[in-house]
Batch of 2 targets.
Target 1
Amino acid sequence: DTAVSQTPKYLVTQMGNDKSIKCEQNLGHDTMYWYKQDSKKFLKIMFSYNNKELIINETVPNRFSPKSPDKAHLNLHINSLELGDSAVYFCASRDGADQPQHFGDGTRLSIL
Amino acid sequence: GDSVTQMEGPVTLSEEAFLTINCTYTATGYPSLFWYVQYPGEGLQLLLKATKADDKGSNKGFEATYRKETTSFHLEKGSVQVSDSAVYFCALSPGFQKLVFGTGTRLLVSP
């Protein structure tokens, strides 16, 4: 039933590690996104993919690498994690420029 | 560039009070405008939207009107409930796929 699902919900790890967050949508949407929400609740887009092609990359460090194996999935891999990467990461999808985005429940990443 | 400005929170109200959360925007062209709500521990949910000037979006007793002349999209509700306590985000879609969010406004409603 879940429209946009992310795993894991919580991720606690140490500085320097590499981790991945997975996202899947069953809405048939062509476009998927990753957003970062900081501790003050500010939301900023990181990446957008349309039909498996990268269309937005908003000055994100190249330690972050999105991968879209098909249009229903958009995973986020993060290398050499830093303290400043601690945040909630949201996946979203949309079908059309004027349509609303549908969000997952978020992945809370905590770096020790 | 495109941006959204929301009033600082938290907004603290008693149940059944009238709510206004101000939102103004800067954009080139004619963006679509949205209000999203985030309940504690959850993702964002679309609350309402408007795609052109003078459109009024409404849902669950909340309303917002797209005002091109004042570049505003203020959120209102006539009588808030405790269950409305959440963070509210105003956002615009400039047409090339992404959403630009405001900083969010936390609403706290007490019984």
Target 2
Amino acid sequence: GAVVSQHPSWVICKSGTSVKIECRSLDFQATTMFWYRQFPKQSLMLMATSNEGSKATYEQGVEKDKFLINHASLTLSTLTVTSAHPEDSSFYICSAREGAGWGTEAFFGQGTRLTVV
Amino acid sequence: AQSVTQLDSHVSVSEGTPVLLRCNYSSSYSPSLFWYVQHPNKGLQLLLKYTSAATLVKGINGFEAEFKKSETSFHLTKPSAHMSDAAEYFCVVSDSNSGYALNFGKGTSLLVTP
């Protein structure tokens, strides 16, 4: 199947700094990518939908100025956590769908574990 | 609005016995439904999907699920559990109204005992 690569797999940063997470579709083009957040022992919560060449669509309650999303090409989306605080510590997962239509399979990155100290 | 309810947060079965993980959904539009599995410290893997074709869907590793519109259910089953099946399972719904985003259930943790 298609591959989505997410980098880094884990990162530790100091409070107040910014962290960038990359999500790449390696063998297909993804006009839309999705960013999720997963707390320990909980489900994935959709944060935002990243559209190539346009602004991301954020879910209710997600601060767009804190979680900056850039989708500059058909194979790359980035999530930047700005001015990170300990409560931002979480597991972040990106996803991309191969092709259009809601029935197509979504492929997931391996996730990024962010720890803010 | 679409939503998914996984009826059991934890399920425990003995190796070799059947597995049943329950999922109910709500959607105002024709939904697509998926089951994903997440093993510890690993990414999500698609087990199977329903996209308005056959209502009985067969997936990988012997799993299958049946779409029942009248019951708004999409339960996941396997005839005989294996130790390697122990993982977190997510029922997921997507429809055209969601912009193709996936809406995850809270997950069911499957424990398989010897």
